[in-house]
Amino acid sequence: HYEYDFRDIFYSKPETGLGLGMDESSLCVIQDARFKYVHFAALPPLFFDLERDPHQFSNLAESPDHAGLVKDYAQRALSWRLRHAERTLTAFRATPDGLEDRGAQS
Predict the structure, then answer these.
(1) Where are the beta strands (DSSP E) in the chain?
(2) Is residue 106 part of a domain?
(3) Residue 24, exposed/middle/buried by CB under 10 A (0-12, 13-18, 19+)?
(4) Could you tell me the end-to-end alpha-carbon distance of the chain, in angstroms, rounded to an integer?
C-alpha cells in the first residue's frame, strides 16, 4: 500500500489539467503480486492484472468480470486507511476539568 499527493501548490498543473481541486489531487494504491488497484480522490479507479498486463496498459476497473475483485481491493484500501488514519487526539475527551487522556483503545 502507498499513497501519493500530486497537487502542485505553486503552478497547479495537475489540478488544472485534470480539472481537480487541490484537495482532490491524491491517490492510494493497493497492490500484491497479481493485482494493482489505484483509488483517486476525484477520478475513476484503475485496476490492473499485473500477471497478464505487467506494463499496466489495460484498465479493468469497469470490467464486469472484475467487479468483485475491484470491490474487494477498494474495501482493502478503505480498511487500510481507517486502520492507519491520524489519531493523535482520538484518546482525548473534553471534560469540564480539561482534556482527559483515555489511553489507546485497541
Answers:
(1) 2-5, 26-31, 35-40, 46-49, 92-95, 98-101
(2) no
(3) middle
(4) 22
Average pLDDT over residues 19-26: 84
Cell of 14: 495537475
Q: What is the CA angle 95-101-106, rounded to 5? A: 125
Domains in the chain, number:
1
What pLDDT, in 10s, does the model give residues 50-82?
A: 999 999 999 999 999 999 999 999 999 999 988
Give me the CATH number covering residue 55: 3.30.1120.10
- Distance from C-alpha of 101 to C-alpha of 31, rounded to nearest angstrom: 37
68 Cβ contact partners less than 8 Å away, ≥ 6 residues apart: none
- Which pLDDT band holds residue 106 (cuts at 50, 70, 90)? low
pTM confidence score: 0.77
